[in-house]
Write a structure and sequence with these properties.
Strand order of the largest sheet: 1-2-3-5-8-9-10-13
Distance between the termini: 30 Å
Shape: globular
Helix content: 40-55%
Number of strands: 13
Order of helices and strands: EHEHEEHEHHEEEHEHEEHHEHEH
Strand content: 5-15%
C-alpha cells in the first residue's frame, strides 16, 4: 500500500483558538508539510484545487512547482484538478511544465470540482459541468499523447492540428479520477482504463463503496483487465496515539469545534459524537493497531491500494500532528505496506518521453 499526505489549503480560523493566520504563513505551512511528508517516508504529497472560500488552493501547479524544487523523492499529486472549470490547453501547458520541473514525479487526480461560488466564477452550470469535465479530459488526454491535436470542442474554440508546448516529460502521465458523489466521473475513469480515487471523507463508507463497485462493473463493461484496477481512498482526519484514550482526548476539541462550526453555518452534521465519528467515518483516530484494523475494514469494501492522510494539523497542535504522523509511519504504515498490495504499476522514477521525432500520434 502507498500513502499520500494531502492538503486542500483551507484558510480559516483555527478551530480551537479562533485565530486565522495570514495567507503567506498558510502557504509556508504547506511547504513545511511537504518537507515533513518526504522526511517521514510518505509516497506522495497532494495539493487540492478550489476557487472559493475558505480555500486558497486556486493554483496547485504553482504550489507543486515550489514543492518540486524543495523535494527530491516524493511524488506530487493534484487533488483534484478541476477540469470542468479549466481550459484543457492551458491546464496541459501548466502540468507538462511542472512534469519537467519535477523530473517526472507528477500524478494528476482530476474531477469536476464542486461548489456554487466557483461554478459561478467560471460560468459553469450544474447542467453542463459533467460534459465540460469529460470534454476537457478528452482534449487534455490527446494533448499529452499527440504532437498535433484536432478536436471539435463545444466549450472552448475547436483545435485543428494544434501543437502545444512543452511536450511532456512522462509519456503518458498517470491520471486518477476523483470520485465523491456521482457515477459520471466513475464511468469516465472506467472508460479510459484509468485509476479511481474515492473522496471517502464526508459520509460513512456505504455511498463511496457503492461507487467503487460501479467502477469495477464499468471497468468490466469496457473490457479492461481486472488485474490493472487501481483504487485510492481518502480519510476524514488523523490522530494516532499510543492508546485510543489519548487519541480521542487529543482530537475531541477539534471535533467539537468543527461540529459547532457546521451547526453555525447550516452544514449537515453527519456524526453527532466524536465516538461515532471515530467508529463510522474514515478518520484514523486511535492506536496504531486500531488504525491498521480500520484501514483493513475499508480495504474489504474498496480494495484500495493507495490511501491519503491529512497533511494539515487541522486544529491539532503542530507537535501533536507531527507525533501522530510519525507514529503512523513507524507502526501502522509498515504493517499496511506488508499486508495490502501496491497499485499495479510502477511508483518510482518514470523515464522521460522520447524525442519529438520518435513520438507517436496514437491516442
Amino acid at each position: 500500500m502507498r500513502f499520500l499526505a494531502i492538503t486542500l489549503i483551507a484558510h480559516r480560523p483555527d478551530p480551537r483558538t479562533g485565530i486565522q493566520k495570514p495567507a503567506h504563513d498558510r502557504f509556508r505551512e504547506v511547504l513545511d508539510s511537504a518537507l515533513l511528508a518526504e522526511e517521514l517516508g510518505f509516497d506522495g504529497f497532494g495539493v487540492g484545487e478550489r476557487h472559493e472560500r475558505p480555500f486558497i488552493s486556486s493554483s496547485p501547479a504553482v504550489v507543486l512547482s515550489h514543492v518540486a524544487a524543495l523535494t527530491k523523492r516524493i511524488r506530487l499529486f493534484t487533488a483534484v484538478t478541476t477540469l470542468s472549470l479549466l481550459d484543457p490547453v492551458r491546464a496541459y501547458e501548466d502540468y507538462a511544465t511542472l512534469d519537467h520541473l519535477s523530473d517526472g514525479r507528477l500524478d494528476l487526480i482530476i474531477g469536476k470540482g464542486n461548489g456554487t461560488a466557483q461554478r459561478d466564477l467560471f460560468h459553469v452550470t450544474p447542467e453542463d459541468q459533467w460534459s465540460r469535465n469529460a470534454e476537457s479530459y478528452e482534449v487534455f488526454r490527446k494533448l499529452w499523447r499527440q504532437d498535433k491535436v484536432t478536436a471539435a470542442t463545444r466549450f472552448r474554440p475547436p483545435l485543428t492540428d494544434a501543437e502545444v508546448w512543452p511536450r511532456p516529460y512522462q509519456r503518458p502521465i498517470r491520471v486518477w479520477h476523483g470520485s465523491a458523489t456521482s457515477k459520471e466521473s466513475v464511468d469516465l475513469a472506467a472508460r479510459y482504463g484509468d485509476p479511481l480515487f474515492s473522496a471517502n471523507v464526508t459520509h460513512p463508507v456505504e455511498p463511496y463503496a457503492e461507487l467503487v463497485r460501479y467502477y469495477r462493473q464499468r471497468w468490466d463493461h469496457y473490457g479492461h483487465d481486472a488485474a490493472r484496477i487501481a483504487v485510492g481512498a481518502g480519510t476524514a482526519g488523523i490522530c494516532v496515539a499510543p492508546t485510543s484514550q489519548e487519541a480521542l482526548a487529543a482530537y475531541r476539541p477539534v471535533f467539537e469545534a468543527n461540529r459547532a462550526l457546521a451547526e453555525k453555518t447550516g452544514l449537515p452534521v453527519v456524526f453527532e459524537t466524536l465516538e461515532d465519528f471515530a467508529e463510522r467515518s474514515s478518520a484514523l483516530i486511535g492506536s496504531p493497531q486500531q488504525v491498521v484494523d480500520k484501514v483493513h475494514r475499508y480495504h474489504e469494501r474498496f480494495g484500495h491500494t493507495v490511501l491519503h492522510l491529512h497533511a494539515d494539523a487541522g486544529g491539532l497542535t503542530e507537535s501533536r500532528h507531527r507525533a501522530s504522523l510519525e507514529l503512523f509511519q513507524a507502526e501502522a504504515a509498515p504493517v499496511l505496506r506488508r499486508e495490502i498490495p501496491d497499485p499495479p504499476f510502477a511508483w518510482g522514477p518514470v523515464l522521460p518521453a522520447p524525442p519529438l521525432a520518435q513520438e507517436s500520434a496514437h491516442v
